[in-house]
Amino acid sequence: MQNSRSSQLFQQALKSIPGGVNSPVRAFRSVGSDPLFIKSAAGPMIFDEDGNGYIDYVGSWGPMIVGHCHPKVVEAIKKAVDSGASFGAPTELEITLAEMVIAAVPSIEMVRMVSSGTEATMSAIRLSRGYTGRDNILKFSGCYHGHSDSLLVKAGSGLATFGVPDSPGVPADLAKHTLTATYNDLDSVRALVAANKGTIACVIVEPVAGNMGTVPPQEGFLEGLREICTEEGIVLIFDEVMSGFRVAYGGAQERFGITPDLTTLGKIIGGGLPVGAFGGKKEIMSQLSPAGGVYQAGTLSGNPLAMTAGIETLKLLQEPGFYEKLEEKSKFVAEGIAKAAKDAGYPLYSTRVGSMFCGFFSKEPVYNWDSAAKCDTKAFATYFRGMLEEGVYLACSQFETAFVGASHTEKDLEKTIAAAAKCFKSL
Ligand code: PMP
Questions:
Q1: Helix (H, G, I), strand (E, B), or coil: what is residue 40?
Q2: Which of 49, 165, 278, 280 is deepest in the core (most CB within 10 A)?
Q3: pTM assigned to the model
Q4: Contacts of 175 (CB under 8 A, 6+ apart)
Q5: Strand 136-140 vs strand 200-205: parallel, antiparallel, or unpaired?
Q6: Is 239 a residue of the active site?
Q7: What is the ipTM of this complex?
């Protein structure tokens, strides 16, 4: 592929934007090439500045579940912008999306909109601290919950990719309040809870981990967290920024039948525009200002264009058979890639939950951060570059998730499997 214009733009961007990108995970740094600069997208495809097209499994890191530029979403946004881009005042659209979220997600009785997943988790943490009067929080190594200070401790996603799980700039005095347990290991949670009795405000977890690659919850893990939190008066937060409306319409909590106290959302509920949300029990949510004392606010929160994109996207997800079809496609492509690796005699540990999947370059099973960290990231980088060359755009790190969308056709998926087969053979 000819990528000269992307490389030229990257050189230009490096002069005005730190690292040339506005979010570190975009930089292709760990895979040894320059990032592609994207000009447009349509359905399952993205097109770079050099005119190359790629089958896209990043989907803007999750939101584009109905495909890029879905005509209904585009039309609704165009219509909405004619009425004004932002008012900073309540609109009916906010009630519509709030009611749709409440109807969809079993545990959410009230919800507040924000503009990113980071804001959603940061606010949910503050709310649980305010509600319980406790300072400590508990998260899992390898899980990523956005970039607020309390959550940049042993974090996944870009921090895992770049090997800096704890960011400089987070005061040690604050980080000490973040306790870190091991994913899929209830004993590690019980030990921390016992050692910090009565001081933990919340447990925050990705119910399907997607920021250390895709790591499904083992049987009993989420149930166990629910039990511990109930016994200890700890607020259980499911961070469903990625899994919400992705692994089922009602998210991982619907798929696995566990009820958290608070849920954070983002990505899909904004249909590609900046949105996050957090919601849960009325008793907890009514502690938020101005109903209660816990402060949280946003100039663009509930933005009418973003609400519109979210509403239209959720409507499309409600179409009969949407998730069944998505499951079928995802199974086909994930199993096809796993088989391609096996046929080539290449060790790959494949995971999938709904339309989230991952191939770990590991002979051993991956079920938490320590096992994920053992993957052969060099081999992944070679595979990533090979797939790009074949016209398949994957997330540029072993520690991310691939997303299948409704617009991926059978032909796209077959082409992807054939590309993977070729890449595994040459590894
Ligand atoms: N939580 C999870 C589970 C996420 O995957 C992400 C983003 N990948 C976030 C929170 C942060 O969301 P945002 O990037 O919109 O701030």
A1: strand
A2: 278
A3: 0.98
A4: 149, 150, 152, 153, 166
A5: parallel
A6: yes
A7: 0.99
